[in-house]
């Protein structure tokens, strides 16, 4: 007979036990019967899910200005077809994967954009929303392209960090809303964008919609400026190229 390598057999780990949760007798490894172990796991998962949901809701409240948090899609002032668009549109990755909402003021473009952004946010993907100017900034909170471009060079390290973080999120998030294109900070002379803002806008769009040809990073853009006005605002160097890029990458919806 071969010599035994181990003289002591492992003690049986499974034995008769009493479940600490329900008091039933069962045979197993731990102090819980199968049903109670599963129930504890379910409670833990549910707790985690609720905690994640709470964090998501808080992030949304920080991102979406209060004015746009609740939209009644039967409201008479909204543009026709907008409610249907909100039901239908999904961001894509190639082709015309982005959305450009154009039309006169007050028809609900920003409301629709936030409703679409929210759906993507709720699904757990990263989203960001920027106003082209600085309309959504408050206190130390920076959420505007023009203000972030300016404040990235602030002497206050908190502000410059916040501005850089905002611009970085705008570059990398899975869906970006850029609201009110054409309302960027103007240069003091002509009615055009300041050089730095124009450059940042161009670089942002180039990065998200052009460089990443295979997996474009979609955007939702809104504007109430007619195409010709927008082109003039963007300036002679960037106007036409930027509009061409948007036309190639966006489904254009007029409301
Ligand atoms: N609770 C509400 N639910 C739905 N619509 C509302 C509600 N309150 C106001 N409105 C409508 O929303 C409109 C404004 O929506 P929104 O700001 O999205 O328009 P917009 O097209 O983005 O305008 P702009 O081009 O000036 O930015 C108002 O004109 C009003 O008719
Ligand atoms: Mg708007
Ligand atoms: Zn039990």
SSE inventory with pairings:
Layout: E1 15-18, E2 25-28, H1 34-63, H2 82-88, E3 98-102, H3 109-122, E4 127-131, H4 145-151, H5 157-172, E5 175-179, H6 195-211, E6 219-223, H7 227-249, E7 250-254
Parallel strand pairs: 3-6, 3-7, 4-5, 5-6
Antiparallel strand pairs: 1-2
Helix pairs in contact: 2-3, 4-5, 4-6, 6-7
The structure holds adenosine-5'-triphosphate, magnesium ion and zinc ion.
Zinc ion (ZN) is lined by residues 19, 21-22, 24, 32-33, 35-36.
Defining key terms:
single chain, 255 residues, alpha/beta, Rossmann fold, 2 domains, 5-stranded parallel beta sheet, two-stranded antiparallel sheet, 7 helices, 7 strands, 45% helix, 13% strand, disordered N terminus, binds adenosine-5'-triphosphate, binds magnesium ion, binds zinc ion, P-loop_NTPase, IstB-like ATP binding protein
């Amino acid at each position: 007979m071969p010599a035994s390598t181990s003289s002591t057999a492992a003690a049986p780990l499974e034995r008769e036990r009493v479940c600490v949760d329900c008091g039933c007798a069962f045979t197993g490894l731990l102090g819980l019967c199968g049903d109670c172990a599963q129930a504890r796991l379910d409670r833990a998962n549910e707790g985690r899910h609720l905690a994640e949901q709470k964090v998501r809701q808080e992030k949304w409240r920080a991102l979406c200005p209060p004015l746009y948090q609740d939209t009644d899609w039967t409201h008479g002032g909204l543009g026709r077809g907008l409610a249907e668009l909100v039901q239908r549109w999904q961001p894509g990755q190639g082709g015309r994967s982005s959305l450009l909402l154009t039309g006169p003021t007050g028809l609900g473009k920003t409301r629709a954009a936030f409703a679409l952004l929210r759906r993507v946010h709720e699904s757990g993907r990263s989203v960001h929303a920027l106003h082209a100017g600085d309309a959504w900034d408050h206190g130390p909170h920076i959420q505007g392209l023009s203000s972030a471009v300016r404040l990235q060079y602030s002497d206050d390290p908190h502000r410059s960090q916040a501005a850089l973080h905002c611009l970085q999120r705008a570059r990398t998030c899975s869906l970006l809303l850029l609201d009110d294109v054409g309302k960027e900070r103007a240069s003091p002379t002509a009615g055009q964008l300041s050089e730095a803002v124009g450059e940042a806008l161009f670089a942002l769009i180039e990065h998200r919609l052009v460089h990443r040809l295979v997996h474009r990073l979609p955007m939702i853009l809104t504007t109430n400026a007619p195409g010709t006005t927008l082109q003039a605002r963007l300036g002679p160097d960037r106007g036409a190229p930027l509009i061409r890029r948007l036309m190639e990458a966006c489904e254009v919806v007029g409301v």
